[in-house]
Design brief:
heterodimer; A: 155 residues; Arc Repressor Mutant, subunit A; 2 domains; 12% strand; B: Alpha-Beta Plaits; Rossmann fold; six-stranded mixed β-sheet; 31% helix
Amino acid sequence: MALDNKILDEINELKRKYEDERSCLLPALYLFQREYGWLSPEALERVAEILNIPKATVKGVSTFYAMFSHKPMGRHLIQLCTNVACMIMGGERLLDILKGRYGLEPNLTTPDRRFSLVIMECIGACDTAPAMLVDTDLHGNLTEENIIGILERYE
Amino acid sequence: MITITIDGKKISFERPVTILDAARAAGIHIPTLCHHDILKPYGGCRLCLVEVEKVPKLQTACSQYVSDGMVVRTETEKVVDARRAVLEFLLINHPLDCPHCDKAGECELQDLAAKYGPAMGRFAEGKRRYPENLEDPLIVRNRERCILCLRCVRMCDDVQGASALSVTGRGSKSYIEPFSGGAYDCEYCGNCLAVCPVGAITSRTHRHGFRPWLMEKEVETVCSYCGVGCSLVLQVRNNSVVRSVPRSGLGLNRGLLCSKGRFGYDCLNYGDRLDAPLMRRNGVLERVTWTEAINCIADRMKEIKRENGSDAIAGIVSGRCTNEDAYVFQKFFRGAIGTNNIDSVAGMAYGPAQRFFEKILVQGVTANPIQGISDSDGIFVIGGDPTAINPVLGLQVRSASKKGVPVIVVGHPGGLKRYSKRAFIMNSAAETVFLAALVDEIKRRRPLPGERPVLEEIINGFRPAPLEDASKMSGFGPNDLVDTAHALSNMSRPSIIIGRDIVQTDTGHMNLLFLAALTYLLNGRIYLLSELPNEQGVLDMGCQPDMLPSGRPLTVETFRKRCEETLGIIIPPAPGLSYAEMTEAAHEGRIKALYVMGEDMVLGLPDSNYVRGALRNIEFLVVQDRFFTETAKYADVVLPALSWAEKEGSYTNLERRIQLTRKAVEGESIEEWKVISEISKTFGLHMGYRSAADIFSEIARVSQIYRELTLEGIADGKSVWPYRGGPLRYDMHTEGTKLPDIVSVMEESGMSGVHVRREAHLFHSQNASRYSPALLSITPEPHLKIGDILADRLSVKDGDRVKVSTDAGSIVLSARRDPCLPDNVVLASTFDGGGIFEITKWRVNPITKAPASDVNGVVIDKEEAITVLHKDRADSLVGG
């Protein structure tokens, strides 16, 4: 509830920025995903109620976008790129490292709910390929040696 | 002028239309799938592609508008190829399971594939497989058959305004889904399944039981659930109604229906219909012949008339009776029994409200066309949720709101939640004070028109409560009140929509006066919500204790005499008792015999135990009904009745449109009017009707307003007030209307504590819906709506059982939290055995004669058993 109040304050702030409540929908969904890590049916209903938008519409919008998750995720989201540049630079081999160290496979979450892994088709960091996003942090020039070190910083 | 050429035909238009409409005007058929006449152009299915000269690509006829000189070709090789390709794409994932699809035979995709489609697709990949979704009790979704034309979503969003469906996912993984992904949480209007061109959304009520080509007949008639009177078509096979559908372009509903109209027809086929008369012998109801039953009624009524006088006998008709039944009923009571003790459920609110407005404004003031609502420039709703009580009328409010028309609601907004600017929920006394304050604020902003001096005297003369006090009592700030008055003052032709709950309170008469003032000040149009299909009709037929047919007061001697001469009967000069007064009189033993036609009094009146007591006190009770209702349990004679689909007749809706109800199936009984004329014969009053048309022609003779109408003549559904006769002219007087005393309302209201108010339920009306398995499947039990603050205070969660108690008794309901509600108002609906009427006391409002039922000081407890259960579980968790 306390968390909800915090989000509520931020949504009220959003409402001031936009002309109508429908325009607040995507940012509001982001807020809930940021706080809870995913969009539960309850979260979608809450957004619908706060913004006075039909809940079916909210679901339609949120399921359209790949960046919203509709199942529980780990505390940290790894978005690893395996598109051309990253693949050539060894991105796919990093998958084996993640599997070996954390038992983590694409679209799944570690049993301790520490990490979730999603394979991305280009995150726009080809200059530092292979690259990944952990939550909102960009990590480039990954190697089989340094990737674990980076991830260990995320509890 | 725009002139275009389609397939070589030249055709001109004054205004731009779509190519599709132009082609239709030229008599040329263009195939469509996503297009639907009720919906806006969409251009999604690409099936209506046509060739337009000088435009390189094919154009969608449904969304492309014509321009002058355009040359269109609709069936060229290029077009046919494109259509074939589109169909091939649509069939990639379609299961082609026509043999067991409910849509087969009336499926637009099937027809198109037969006409244009390739016999075989070229796609080697497998089809998507999903099981049919059967989680919902009424609506089946089949994702495999769906072609994503979005007719359903557009219908739900743009027309119905429920927005319960949306497309989830993306690309090849797009599905039409309600929020839960399974069961619907919606208004169950079923308009989505009506517009689905394929078998993706179908009704469960006739699943695997409907084949369009096996229907034996289709009968156009009028729905019998509420006072809107939607046209519908009953499809019949083996003398049973298999489906009820609307037809676009037919009637005032133009292709739309609500949950009750679409699914509620199954009460016709309900197994436990009464099929023979019953008579009480040695305390037990036994099957008897019609002759025995009629003789018994005649003998007992004559005996009571002899011993106790005519006024010891009374009659109540249902608002579901046809005009013809109601007319014969009152003629029998006035002419044969010799009493004016006749009333109906319309006498509980609709009638008194109409009478009041007609008296103070003009006759026919409430007869306004429903379609006019969406053209008004403001809407004021009070006393009931139009989207629940009269759903198709409610759509007009939503449609106005979408155009930016301000909607202000006093009471729970219900289905207007997303469509109202403001909603003010409070207790009933506060509503009166609030209305008074509004009138007072508006009169400062709008000059009085000077047309009705007596009304203006009242508007100028009454003393409202100080704004501060009024706002404090209502629970809203003074600014809210002033802003609302300001918004209302800016309206020049608002619709004022009035529900029953504003009448059934101690201050009901004052509310009506303020609403009349509001209507007068704002140049408003009144719409009285009507919960039954023929409330207006039974009033017009004279089923009122003080009015003759066509709304003539029987105390005016000239009216009474003329009626007596036309009918050859003697009408007693003194008004009779109202529905509520009869119930009181029965309780006190003053009414010895009661004839109830089609009404379940235990369900229809507040304070069920009191009503049961009254029924027990009646010496001789006759109940004529389709079902063995709770009221019938107290009867001495029970007569089976026909349903509206089993007889000819007419209904008059809330806009005073008279419509024909046609016989669709044969019932196992005799028309009510026939039964009553048989009884009447034994009293020496021979009616001699052979058909409903006979009765109607007598009505047209007796009633000034129905003059020149015939039953065949009204079949087109276009007979709208003031018909051909014109309104009745007589002195509408306002004398005797006292200045409302707002100060005493505030002082005496005793409105502390929690107030329980009635929630008119979308899925249930009076008693007929209780016999519809379909409607019961979506709402099997009553519930209590409770605000978040109060719910938190009582630690009540959704679904918890709560005990609601008043001095009249207590009921246990399942709780539903509702963020709209303040902490001093809860809502409960009527329901047999456990609805709000079980705990509602009432007294007769001396002015409206309606039952006033203000329920204050309600005690709400979380049910003990559940609390203990929770406690045990909590203990075991702590212990573990």
